[in-house]
Amino acid sequence: MINWTSLETVFLDMDGTLLDLHFDNHFWLEHLPQRYAEQYDLHPDEAKHQLISMIMAERGTLNWYCTDYWSERLAMDITGLKSEVGNRIGYRPHVANFLQALKKTGLRSVIVTNCHPDPLELKLQCTGLDSFVDCIVSSHQLGKPKEDTAFWQDLQQLAPYRAATTLMVDDSFPVLESARAAGIAQCLGILAPDSTQAARETHPDIPCVHHFDEILSSIHQQRPLPSSG
User: Fold this and answer.
1) What are phi and psi of 17, to 5 degrees?
2) Which DSSP letter does residue 188 get?
3) Distance between CA 111 and CA 189 in Å, rounded?
4) pLDDT surpasses 80 at 228
5) CA–CA separation, 25 vs 196, rounded Å?
6) Strand, helix or coil at 220?
7) Which end of the chain has less neighbouring CB within 10 Å, N or C?
8) What is the per-residue pLDDT across 93-144, written as a single tens digit (0 to 9) for each?
């Protein structure tokens, strides 16, 4: 599925790949509509309908992910509201073992996320995820989302890499398709990003897994640890 021997760098999405997407789905589909209804004296169903319409109109753009944009657009403190349900932030299964395996075998691991820096900081405080990886890049630092093919060239400024020796892991098929179009040699999709929802259908052209335990053995087989002797 993955040729680990050819790799130097592993780019990793965060939400839905390393962290359970349940937090984000709950926030945008349940918690924010509730707070929005309270602030603007709306029926909960009407509040949810209004929000989803606004959010879907920004799909695929940096605004979709931008806490500053939504805070201004809705006149609400989005990062503060996210912290109200911060107890829902957590890892997906087998993530720690996977990240430790990458580190032990000498592969460089870089989180490449569309998450805005403010909620990113909240998630790092809750999980300590930054201790497992070599670097973290938010697409907001480059002014364009990962869905934009030009993002991958600009990424060289913050996390230089060789496309031929790089793997991108993400739960978003549009992002993986963007990475492939930009020349990233290998891609891997995640089919079960939200622990409370059923797994999605696989991609016809991109290898996929539900959880990282499905590929741990292949890492160890292809990149055995150096002998201590």
Assistant:
1) -115, -55
2) E
3) 15
4) no
5) 10
6) helix
7) C
8) 999 999 999 999 999 999 999 999 999 999 999 999 999 999 999 999 999 9
pLDDT for the residue numbered 226: 62
- The answer to whether the beta carbons of residues 208 and 202 sit under 8 Å apart is yes
CA dihedral of residues 59, 147, 202, 208 (deg, nearest 10):
-140
3-state secondary structure of 208: strand
Q: What is the Cα–Cα distance from 179 to 44, expressed in whole angstroms?
A: 38
Domains of the chain, CATH where assigned: 4-21+91-222 (3.40.50.1000), 23-87 (no CATH)
Report the C-alpha dihedral over residues 66, 72, 73, 74, rounded to 10 degrees.
Answer: 110
Per-residue pLDDT at 229 exceeds 60: no
Decide: 147 and 179 in contact? Cβ < 8 Å: no
Structure-block tokens of residue 191? 């089919």
The C-alpha angle 123, 145, 122, rounded to 5 degrees, equals 10
HSE at residue 39, side-chain half, CA atoms within 13 A, is 13
* Chain mean pLDDT for the chain: 95
